[in-house]
Amino acid sequence: xxxxxxxxxxxxxxxxxxxxxxxxxxxxxxxxxxxxxxxxxxxxxxxxxxxxxxxxxxxxxxxxxxxxxxxxxxxxxxxxxxxxxxxxxxxxxxxxxxxxxxxxxxxxxxxxxxxx
Amino acid sequence: xxxxxxxxxxxxxxxxxxxxxxxxxxxxxxxxxxxxxxxxxxxxxxxxxxxxxxxxxxxxxxxxxxxxxxxxxxxxxxxxxxxxxxxxxxxxxxxxxxxxxxxxxxxxxxx
Lengths: 116, 111
What we know:
Shape of chain B: globular
Radius of gyration of chain A: 13 Å
Oligomer: heterodimer
Order of helices and strands of chain B: EEEEEEEEEEEE
Number of helices of chain B: 0
Largest interface: A-B, 27 and 23 residues
Structural class of chain B: mainly beta
Largest sheet of chain B: 6 strands, mixed
Number of helices of chain A: 0
Largest sheet of chain A: 7 strands, mixed
Structural class of chain A: mainly beta
Strand content of chain B: over 45%
Number of strands of chain A: 11
Distance between the termini of chain B: 41 Å
Low-confidence stretches of chain B: none
Mean pLDDT of chain A: 90
Helix content of chain A: under 10%
Order of helices and strands of chain A: EEEEEEEEEEE
């Protein structure tokens, strides 16, 4: 079965550079989530989209932005990168529907971003 | 506010013994509870969920979890642990368009 695909798997950037992370959700899933997981930490919610519209926003820095495109793939854009942005970034998708809570999210394998 | 707590950073168990990974929740409204497992450098894999119905939920790889409303708990269990079960386990709740994760419990199963 198709899973959530994230690219690239690994990314090394220098401070103050920009990075773009891509996420391809499971076909027909209507909700995409982005999470950031620092070393030894639990995943922290960044942002979510339902049917290509932003549905919720968490602790996402102003330097970050995200969008979901007409084909439902999503991109997380990160500018002016800082050392503290080094983390594992997960994308997840679900067939949640707005306000529906009876479905699990399926996670991609993540993009490991290292800022040097 | 929605939250889940995992009181143990690490759980050690011998192969073949039963295992329990603890989770308590604090949610407004009906709880929607999940367990995920994470292997090193991998994404989170769904194990099981509680939405409504039977308090004992069965999931993947022989895992099960018991929902206890009076104790606001959702502990993950397995009757007989395998070395391959060694991983990081996250409890989560879902509300208002996002998942809230616990801090994770590292499960070590020794041969």
